[in-house]
Specification:
single chain; 221 residues; mainly alpha; globular; disordered N terminus
């Protein structure tokens, strides 16, 4: 066994507690959206999302044919990374986190998709359908919360309703719905990128970044 493995494990209870405090605390599936505080980072993210979204919209059939290989490989790799992080950080010793178990489930799902690649649409449709229902109900919950606080909620209400309908369609007829969902996924990717730029512009750090750029421009003049 390599010597660096011995250094990963704490020798005292205090060291163990310190290591556990540093371990990530994800849910079974992380639904929280990353908010960019840098406009530049948000624009790079939006550009990447736009490229992926356009590819899904323009080359739907080609991507659909390769989808089991792409999605299965990504899920398997993501699961392996989560399991590795769980082992290295000792996260599996905590009962209130799910990083290791999440990694195992994602790894197994990825393997099943790769193994059943010729008939994977039903599996992919079921996975996306459940995710759509979960995301839709969470979005509707935020809409209800904003509505009760007298805040604008129409956008999230519409978004959540669409996600629920798409989730139901994927579960009801996955073989037909997966191809259509790829096209809609392209639209969603582009919309997420645009939303990230909008949120970044509203952040205080983005205001400081804009002011700094303006000052640099003024000094250059």
């Amino acid at each position: 066994m390599p010597s660096h493995w011995h250094r990963r494990w704490p020798e005292t209870k205090k060291e163990m507690n310190e290591l556990l405090q540093k371990a990530p605390v994800p849910k079974a599936r992380n639904h929280s959206r990353h908010r960019f505080t840098s406009i530049r980072a948000a624009r790079i993210f939006a550009a990447a999302q736009a490229v992926l979204g356009a590819a899904c919209m323009l080359f739907t059939q080609q991507i659909h044919a390769l989808l089991p290989y792409i999605l299965g490989s990504v899920m398997a790799l993501s699961g392996i990374c989560d399991i590795y992080r769980g082992i290295v950080t000792g996260e599996f010793r905590r009962s209130d986190t799910k990083l290791t178990s999440h990694g195992i489930s994602i790894l197994l799902l990825g393997w099943v998709i790769l193994y059943s690649r010729e008939h994977a649409d039903s599996i992919i449709g079921a996975i996306w359908g459940v995710i759509g229902l979960t995301k839709g109900t969470e979005t509707l919950n935020r809409a209800i919360c904003k509505g009760s606080a007298k805040e604008p909620f129409a956008g999230e209400l519409i978004h959540g309703s669409i996600e629920l309908v798409l989730g139901i369609l994927l579960l009801a007829d996955p073989l037909t719905a997966v191809g259509h969902h790829l096209f809609l996924l392209g639209i969603e990717l582009i919309a997420v990128g645009i939303q990230a730029v909008k949120e970044a512009k509203k952040s205080p750090a983005a205001g400081e970044e804009t002011a700094s750029l303006e000052n640099q421009a003024g000094q250059a003049d």
